[in-house]
Model the fold of this input.
Amino acid sequence: MKWNRLAAAALLFFGLALVGTAGTGNAKKLVGVWEITKGKGAPPGATVEFTKDGKMKLHAKVGDKELNIGGTYKLDGNKLTTKLEFMGKSKEDTDTIKSLTDDRLVLEDSRGEVTELKRVTRKKKAE
Done:
């Protein structure tokens, strides 16, 4: 039961925390992998990946369990509607972006809670 509550909390957190922006440049900035660095309920090291085809993947480690959640997102102005599917349930939310740079994303949910993310840069393989 504890695992179900943690999974539900993570699903709710990610649903509320994920946002995007309009405009080709900003939409392109959103695509990639982001690590949550600050925010309520975020497991340390949790990441979200936005793909250019409107899909998203959430990954977090809760205790000794790996949590992977798939979903979709849609940009509309400074709003992003996310739809997550997990354990047979669907959760849809819309949030506002406060700041988006090449390496930092700041989000605000409908209750005014702020979440900060940093871009995860992939290390290049040595040749």
In short: The radius of gyration is 14 Å.
